[in-house]
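WARN  no MSA supplied for this record, continuing single-sequence
INFO  ligand: zinc ion
INFO  echoing inputs
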Amino acid sequence: MSPFICPLCRSHFTQKHNTQICENNHHFDIAKEGYLNLLPVNAKNSKNPGDNKEMMMARRAFLDSGGYLPLAEKLSALISQYLAKTNAPTLLDLGCGEGYYTSHIEQVLSDSATITALDISKVAIRYAAKRYKKINFCVASAYDVPMTDKSIDALIRIYAPSLDSELQRLIKPSGFLITVTPAPRHLLELREKIYDQVNEHGSENDAPQGFTKIEQINLNYPMRINNEQILKDLIQMTPFAWKFNEQKMLSLLAEKTWQIECDFNIEIYQKD
Ligand SMILES: C[S@@+](CC[C@H](N)C(=O)[O-])C[C@H]1O[C@@H](n2cnc3c(N)ncnc32)[C@H](O)[C@@H]1O
Ligand SMILES: [Zn+2]
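INFO  complex generated
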């Protein structure tokens, strides 16, 4: 059975050939890569919402280089620890991008787990579904998730937007919410190149309503980059990419190898 529900009437799907059909006869084709597009046309505020192909490809190339592998490994270890006692767990990666972290987590969970992931960017989901076959991907908004209430044991949100009311609705009582946000020194060397005065990121976030924080982790490590293209991919996937003017970029590229600090806040909350 599909872990998703109809975005129009919220009833369950039955699959017929390559189509999911809800109880009220709304049809959604399963794309050849295996994902569902459940984003209603009237919910889009642009033709192609979310990350575009260029940003998504830069993120994939950078992540494939292993620069954020310590984060993927830490998250996988935490999720397998927190879900150790849950039988046939359900996990949702909200704003999953091209699926890098979802796939790392999928590899540490048992075959009985149901792993779902969504993003509003169709191109990101297309690439994700093409590469990672064991994950149920759909195009949808994190603000209106086509899944039933209290259906998720663990929800992860890595640098992606969400609504507290949706987090509360989706996660089972005593279920977990795991978030990743930038910590104060994240990519400091790059930000110092751009800004005269670097604003620090926050070192802690408050629990969303209806949740209690149970663990706060700071993951900090130096990342060495020896390849100019990987540095450019990293810059391209950051929100400050457009602030690099040509002169700043040339002075950065002249360095040839780069040591850049990674600093993440990982926060684990439990539903009350
Ligand atoms: C910074 S990226 C992070 C992607 C992924 N979690 C990662 O860390 O590799 C933010 C993602 O949020 C997605 N996004 C933005 N608004 C969204 C929304 N309303 N619903 C779902 N995804 C959204 C973007 O398309 C993008 O893939
Ligand atoms: Zn329907």
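Helices lie at 53-64, 69-82, 100-108, 122-131, 164-170, 188-194, 228-236, 246-253.
INFO  checksum written, moving to next record
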